[in-house]
Amino acid sequence: MHIDNLSSLPVEILLGIANEQLRLNCKDKAALFYDLDINSELLEQKLAAGGYEYDPTSNQYKIR
């Protein structure tokens, strides 16, 4: 799966896509970046700007 125009997606949509992929297909965020074929820094920055950070214990992005 490839996400086009990552920077234009609303944070809530991006969060939903990322967490669904983490829950169903990816064992960690490195696998998520590979699976979605996205720039890890851009994804992290966009989610952080929305107040979310990755929690490795639950393998999902959560509100800070």
From TrEMBL:
<dbReference type="Pfam" id="PF14056">
    <property type="entry name" value="DUF4250"/>
</dbReference>
<protein>
    <submittedName>
        <fullName>DUF4250 domain-containing protein</fullName>
    </submittedName>
</protein>
<dbReference type="InterPro" id="IPR025346">
    <property type="entry name" value="DUF4250"/>
</dbReference>
